[in-house]
């Protein structure tokens, strides 16, 4: 992208429209996509957008399940070419990167030097700018909080064109609102993140089978203080006394001196995800083998088989590399293709601990009653954080994958709206990185009014012409439904 300055307006050559797809592949926009590589290019595009009234959506790795980085009526700024690792202080563990650097870039740069990102998502492909915009959490949220809590400082280009340095002590209001602000106030430029020291190339994993929600919640409450990571897989087809059955993976980091192979087993070639399953089957074929089971009965059988396998390996601890444990969504390439042609959405909700068991029981029950059961449920424990538009609670979350088809889409959206009411009744929250169905009324019901008032005030201050808009922002904040 080259911007030429004329007397009054920058002359920007707008590229042809291309398909910009949500990660869940159920929604997309046809939009011109710019791929800037420098701060100057990003700033010029902001100037041009303010001059012309063009609406801009920022996009990182495109890992949000819904319409968080699509823009039907405007342009998209893809930041993945603005991705340099600028500095890494091996004494302090502070890494400075451009905002288009991916989580993959962070861990690959850090691990051979004994460092790992403090918070990662289930895929290594999000950019750090996108991760901060959504303030992502990981399987260790209950212990270390969200990724925003590990940021030392960032430079930020506001929508009106100012570049500000933000930290917990400098431009504090913007620091705590840009992180979690889903790209609506400006663009992260450079970011300083404090990496986590590690003393082993692998972690100890304990697989635990639980028979129902009672055992699931009891295990998390009993063991979270002695765990570095905890995550549960739940069989959403199970009902009655078996509702909530599944498998927990408890992970603990090895302490200094406990790994005789350290640091040799931190070499990249020993950390990358294997390309073959059982050393035989190319994993790129796995989604093709899984696709024949992508219907209710098939997934019911897969869930049952996984439960049986979980019983067989119950409490049989093993050791696993950091990337293998963290990035399950990357373990089988293109696994989401099993949901084509309509693809999928994820519905993730966060419920306070005193209400969570009842809320999830009601959600699973209504899904079974409506005949639309999610194919993959992931359970995590959380704690509150200080960011403006936070999704976090002192409680638990359930992330649920639903296939989208021509035949079920209307019923699925209706089901999601029914589940919204259950979540609101139990004082829960939602997560913009996963959302596809939220409505303005629901958003206004769960966010504290003071938080929304501050957000709208900051939006007016830093984006007075309203150039930063995405399909999600228009759907949830601008559309009265």
From TrEMBL:
GO MF annotations in UniProt: FAD binding; oxidoreductase activity, acting on the CH-OH group of donors, oxygen as acceptor
Keyword presence, Transmembrane: yes
InterPro entries: FAD-bd_PCMH (IPR016166), FAD-bd_PCMH-like_sf (IPR036318), FAD-bd_PCMH_sub1 (IPR016167), FAD-bd_PCMH_sub2 (IPR016169), FAD-linked_Oxase-like_C (IPR016164), FAD_lactone_oxidase-like (IPR010031), Oxid_FAD_bind_N (IPR006094)
Membrane-spanning segments: 174-193
Keywords: FAD, Flavoprotein, Membrane, Transmembrane, Transmembrane helix
PROSITE patterns according to UniProt: FAD_PCMH
One Pfam family per UniProt: FAD_binding_4
Domain FAD-binding PCMH-type residue range list: 26-198
UniProt cross-references to Gene3D superfamilies, sorted A to Z: 3.30.465.10, Uridine Diphospho-n-acetylenolpyruvylglucosamine Reductase, domain 2
PANTHER family xrefs: D-ARABINONO-1,4-LACTONE OXIDASE, L-GULONOLACTONE OXIDASE
The protein's name: FAD binding domain protein
């Amino acid at each position: 992208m080259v911007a030429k300055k004329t007397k009054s307006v920058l002359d920007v050559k707008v590229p042809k429209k291309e398909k910009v797809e949500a990660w869940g592949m159920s929604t997309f926009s046809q939009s011109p996509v710019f791929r800037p590589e420098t701060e100057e290019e990003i700033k010029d595009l902001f100037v041009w957008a303010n001059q012309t009234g063009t609406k801009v959506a920022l996009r990182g790795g495109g890992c949000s399940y819904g319409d968080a980085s699509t823009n039907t009526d405007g342009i998209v700024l893809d930041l993945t070419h603005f991705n340099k690792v600028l500095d890494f202080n091996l004494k302090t563990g502070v890494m400075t990167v451009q905002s288009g650097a991916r989580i993959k870039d962070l861990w690959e740069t850090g691990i051979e030097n004994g460092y790992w990102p403090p918070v990662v998502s289930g895929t290594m492909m999000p950019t750090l700018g996108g991760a901060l915009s959504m303030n992502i959490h990981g399987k260790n949220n209950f212990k270390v909080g969200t990724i925003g809590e590990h940021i030392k400082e960032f430079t930020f280009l506001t929508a009106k064109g100012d570049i500000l340095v933000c930290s917990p002590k400098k431009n504090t209001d913007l620091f705590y609102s840009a992180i979690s602000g889903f790209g609506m106030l400006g663009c992260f430029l450079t970011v300083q993140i404090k990496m986590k020291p590690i003393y082993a190339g692998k972690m100890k994993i304990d697989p635990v089978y639980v028979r129902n929600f009672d055992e699931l919640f009891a295990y998390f409450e009993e063991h979270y203080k002695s765990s570095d990571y905890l995550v549960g897989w739940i069989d959403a087809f199970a009902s009655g006394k078996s509702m909530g059955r599944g498998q927990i993976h408890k992970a603990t980091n090895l302490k200094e001196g406990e790994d005789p192979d350290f640091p040799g087993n931190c070499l990249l070639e020993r950390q990358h995800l294997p390309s073959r399953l059982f050393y035989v089957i190319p994993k790129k074929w796995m989604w093709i083998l899984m696709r024949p089971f992508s219907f209710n009965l098939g997934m019911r059988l897969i869930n049952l088989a996984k439960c049986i396998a979980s019983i067989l390996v119950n409490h049989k601890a093993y050791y696993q590399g950091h990337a293998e444990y963290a990035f399950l969504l990357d373990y089988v390439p293109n696994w989401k293709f099993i949901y084509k042609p309509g693809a999928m959405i994820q519905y993730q909700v966060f419920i306070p601990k005193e209400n969570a068991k009842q809320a999830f029981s009601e959600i699973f029950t209504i899904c079974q009653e409506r005949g639309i059961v999610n194919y993959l449920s992931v359970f995590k424990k959380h704690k509150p954080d200080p960011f403006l538009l936070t999704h976090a609670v002192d409680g638990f979350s359930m992330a649920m994958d639903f296939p989208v088809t021509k035949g079920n889409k209307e019923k699925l959206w209706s089901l999601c709206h029914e589940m919204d009411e259950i979540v609101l009744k139990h004082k829960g929250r939602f997560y913009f990185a996963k959302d596809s169905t939220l409505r303005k009324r629901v958003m206004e019901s769960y966010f504290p009014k003071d938080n929304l008032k501050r957000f709208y005030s900051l939006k007016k201050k830093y984006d007075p012409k309203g150039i930063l808009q995405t399909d999600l922002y228009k759907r949830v904040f601008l559309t009265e439904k």
